[in-house]
Design goal:
This protein is mostly helical. It has 2 domains: 99 residues, DNA polymerase, domain 1, CATH 1.10.150; 179 residues, Orthogonal Bundle (hpI Integrase, Chain A). Helix content is 57%, strand content 4%. It is built from 15 helices and 3 strands. A hairpin with a 5-residue loop joins β2 and β3. The longest helix has 21 residues. The chain is globular, with a radius of gyration of 22 Å. Keywords: DNA integration, DNA recombination, DNA-binding, Plasmid. It comes from Bacillus caldolyticus.
Length: 304
């Protein structure tokens, strides 16, 4: 049954990482409740699992974002199982995502302008410590990646798969192949254009020295591979984290959406198209004022 579900996900055009994530979450649910894929499952079982994650016997509680991701995986799996006739009732009916406080959501979703400026400063100051890594090469590559995340809103899989032929510097646009093999075009701002021109010029020089770079069709490569993998990008971003704030590629995508809403005066449809969201409800969550926005509003009160 799970093998058929895996084939279904691949047939939909889901990326290998998405397929693996869905299967891992479904398998974790089955393992935690000692169930088989075709067992009869009720909403009570789902709620029991949620409570186990919120109040585990050992270790820390799971983050709300992790629990909601797992619930989404089950929602997808059981929706498919009902359609295929494997189960009669969908146990996810009536199960809503957990909600979190504004302050908690704020710390994991996006960067403020000050935090992004601080990140760029830290990237410039940090040197590569790994043997065989050129500090200048790493800095230029990492900086270009961060700018693409923040100024184009790419998903990490989209950035890893980005090819040289997807960049049109003359027309100032990016061709991005997103989830489900959906293609979107994102304009390149002047700020991003300068960063891309700088990286591509440097990359051209490196291709003269490194055969695997010269043979690579991808915009970003690693030290030994012609393609910078998803996990490699994730580790690179995590290495720039602060003790009190872990950085992730998706946090930069959230930053793009948040900043773009502000730049467009909350034009949700524009941001939805740029980010490649299938549903406008996904984009609308960024309309919520950030904690710093609320703090600025309080400070703007009359002073006596």
């Amino acid at each position: 049954m799970l093998r058929e579900y895996e084939d279904y996900l691949r047939g939909k055009g889901c990326s290998p990482n998405t397929v693996l994530s869905y299967l891992n979450d479904v398998n974790q649910f089955l393992k935690d409740l000692n169930l088989r894929p075709d067992d009869y499952v009720t909403s009570a079982d789902i709620r029991k699992w949620i409570q186990q994650m919120l109040h585990p016997d050992e270790g820390k509680p799971f983050a709300v974002s992790t629990i909601n991701r797992r619930l989404n995986a089950l929602r997808n799996f059981y929706g498919w199982a009902v359609e295929q006739g494997y189960v009669e009732q969908n146990p996810m009916n009536g199960i809503a995502d957990l909600k979190t406080a504004d302050e908690d959501q704020e710390t994991i979703m996006w960067l403020t302008e000050e935090e992004f400026e601080d990140l760029l400063h830290r990237m410039r100051k940090m040197l590569a410590h790994s043997r065989g890594v050129d500090p200048e090469e790493k800095y230029r590559r990492d900086r270009a990646i961060v700018y693409l995340f923040v100024y184009a809103g790419l998903r990490v899989e989209e950035l890893s798969n980005l090819k040289l032929t997807d960049i049109d510097l003359e027309m100032k646009r990016l061709r991005i192949v997103g989830k489900g093999m959906k293609v979107r075009t994102v304009p390149i701002s002047n700020i991003l254009l300068a960063e891309l021109q700088d990286w591509l010029a440097f990359r051209a020089e490196m291709s003269k020295k490194k055969p695997h770079v010269a043979a690579s069709p991808y915009v970003f490569y690693s030290q030994r591979s012609p393609k910078f993998s998803v996990r490699g990008i994730q580790r690179m971003i995590e290495n720039y984290s602060l003790p009190n704030k872990k950085l992730t590629p998706h946090m930069f995508r959230h930053t793009f959406c948040k900043w773009m809403l502000k730049a467009t005066n909350n034009d949700i449809e524009k941001v939805r198209r740029l980010a490649g969201h299938s549903h406008i409800a996904t984009t609308s969550r960024y309309l919520k004022d950030s904690y710093s926005d609320l703090a600025d509003a309080v400070e703007a009160l009359p002073k006596f």
